[in-house]
Amino acid sequence: MPEARSFVILAAVGLAIGVLALVLPTLARPFYWLWYGFAACVGIVVSNLILVLVYYLLFAPIGWLRRMAGNNPLQLGKHPDAKSYWHTMPEPPKPADYFTQS
Predict the structure, then answer these.
(1) Burial of 17 (0-12, 13-18, 19+ CB in 10 A)
(2) How far separated are the first and last CA of the chain, in Å rounded?
(3) Does a structural domain hold residue 53?
(4) What's the number of domains the chain is made of?
(5) Helical spans, DSSP H, in 1-102
(6) pTM exceeds 0.70 for this model
(7) How does pLDDT run across 10-58, given as a tens digit for each residue?
(8) Which domain holds residue 41?
(9) Does residue 82 form part of some domain?
(10) Residues 21 and 28 sit within 8 Å (Cβ to Cβ)
């Protein structure tokens, strides 16, 4: 049972570091910084991995499907016969209109 032996060794080391941290906190500071550095590195890797997976497994396929379906919500594309690409927008309400709401 090598797993049980390694568990006992790791538990003993962890317990020793924990008791050391309670008795002499200044001696435990290097262990804290080592553990914090390790956890920060793991956090950066895992968070970036999750972001990549969400993008390529969720957002990219939705974009490809919308593009294949002919959806163009931004109305992108070149139209050689167009005089201008400017879109006229409705005029925003005047500030005085906000005082006459019912």
Answers:
(1) middle
(2) 79
(3) yes
(4) 1
(5) 2-23, 25-54, 60-68
(6) no
(7) 999 999 988 988 999 898 888 889 999 999 999 999 999 999 999 999 9
(8) 2-71
(9) no
(10) yes
85 located within any domain: no
Alpha-carbon gap, residue 79 to 18, rounded angstroms: 70
What does the DSSP 8-state code read for residue 98?
A: G
* Dihedral pair phi/psi, residue 54, rounded to 5°: -65, -40
Q: How far is CA 23 from the centre of its chain?
A: 39
Decide if 80 is inside a domain: no
The single residue listed with the structure tokens 């895992």 is: 46
Residue 72 has pLDDT above 90, yes or no: no
Torsion of CA 97, 98, 99, 102, to 10 degrees: 100
